[in-house]
Structure formats: C-alpha cells, structure tokens
Amino acid sequence: MSLFRLDTSILGTRSTTGTLADLVEQEWRAAAPDTPVARRHLGADPLPSTAWATAVATAFVPPDRHTPEQREAVALAATLTDELVAADAMIFAAPLYNFGVSQHLKTWVDVVFTDPRMAPGADRILAGKPAVLVTARGGAYGPGMPRDGWDHAIGWMRRIFSDVWGLDLSVVERELTLVGIDPALAPLAEKAERIRSAAEDQARAAGRRLALREGAFPV
Ligand SMILES: Cc1cc2nc3c(=O)[nH]c(=O)nc-3n(C[C@H](O)[C@H](O)[C@H](O)COP(=O)(O)O)c2cc1C
C-alpha cells in the first residue's frame, strides 16, 4: 500500500494547501505508519515548461529518430505516470492562482496525458483509486458573492481527476485565505476563521476516509 502526494504551491512553507495536505497525510500515516509516501512538489521543482510540447511532437516522429530532448520528454511522461500507477491512494494540493489552475499543475497534467497509458481513449488505469484534492483561494467566489463563479480551477481539476481519470475523489476547499493580508477583506475575519477551522476538520476526515478506504486501519 502506498500514497502519492502532489504539491503545487509556489508559496513554500507558507502554503495553505500544503498545510491542509499535511493534515490529510497525518491521518493516513496514523493509520498506516509504515507505508511509503512518494512525493512530487511542482512549486519547488517545476517540470520544464517545454516538456509538454516536446512530448506531443514525438507523436509525429518515429522513435528511432527522436532527439535527446524528445526522449527525455517521453521518459518524463512515463515517470509521472508510473508514480500514479504505483499509488494506492493520492493527495493533490492545488491552490487557485489568477482565477485559474497553477501553470505547474497544468503542465504536469498535460505531460501525463502524453504517456500512451493515459492518452484520451486508453483504458482508465487509475479508475477507482481514492484521492483527496485540497484547494485554497484568497477570495470567495461562491453563490451570492460579487465574483460568483470566478474560480476557474476547481471545475477543471474535478473534471480531470474525477471524470477523465476516474479517481474516487474527495475535495476539501478553503477560501478567504487572504483575510489578514488584504485589508479590504478585514470585515470577513470571523467568517474566514470558521472556514479555516471547517476546512481543517474536513482535511482530517478526508485523510481518515482515505486510509479506511485502503484498509489501512486495523479492524
Ligand atoms: C500569484 C498568486 C495569484 C493568486 N490569484 C488568486 C486569485 O485569482 N483569486 C483568489 O481568490 N486568490 C488568489 N491568490 C491567493 C491564493 O489562492 C491563496 O493565497 C491560497 O491560499 C494559496 O494557496 P497556497 O498557499 O497553498 O499556495 C493568488 C495568490 C498568488 C500567490
């Protein structure tokens, strides 16, 4: 049994999604202390921005004529896919940036799609695996808010992880994380604190469900 954790924040140790993912992982570890956890941190160690286009280009060139860069891009796609295939459960930590998905996460998904095992139309080799997605945003874009619907990341992430890859996905969301930083949000301080506390509870619960789902808890 093994866990794969993907982080994507560019904010280092201040990462909100990193903190939420830590809570999920702690519950997993409490239940299954000896299981391996494979990690990839795209914020700290981004994929090359050219990898995706290079990997796509290999489709039009016979393998024996691939350039060294193309061979490297194909190998990278295989490595990323191997990490997903090897995992019994997954945690994805992915914040909202500029009203959309982080470029690092988008590149990672794009490169994964170039591996033949993950290509559109291939058998869904990850289907049914349990996964937790934790996300965070500085503002609030829910119903009734002036910018209702401006989070264009969460829908795409659900589409990929749940609908396309077929993962058994739980989602933990925290918003208003810029309260305390953006003075314009100061009146929302109490609400933000309630949201923080609820999101942390949800992260712990999602971690316990992840472990239970994988039979990590002794019965
Ligand atoms: C470059 C950048 C762009 C951001 N863009 C948005 C945005 O469009 N909307 C929003 O609500 N929050 C935005 N935020 C705030 C983040 O979503 C928020 O700080 C979140 O908690 C970040 O998660 P992390 O700490 O795990 O990186 C942005 C933050 C950064 C650093």
From TrEMBL:
Annotated FMN binding sites: 9
A Pfam family hit: Flavodoxin_2
Alphabetically ordered keywords of this record: Flavoprotein, FMN, NAD, Oxidoreductase
Family: Belongs to the azoreductase type 1 family.
Protein name per UniProt: FMN dependent NADH:quinone oxidoreductase
E.C. number(s) listed in UniProt: 1.6.5.-, 1.7.1.17
Obligatory cofactor(s): FMN
Name of the gene: acpD
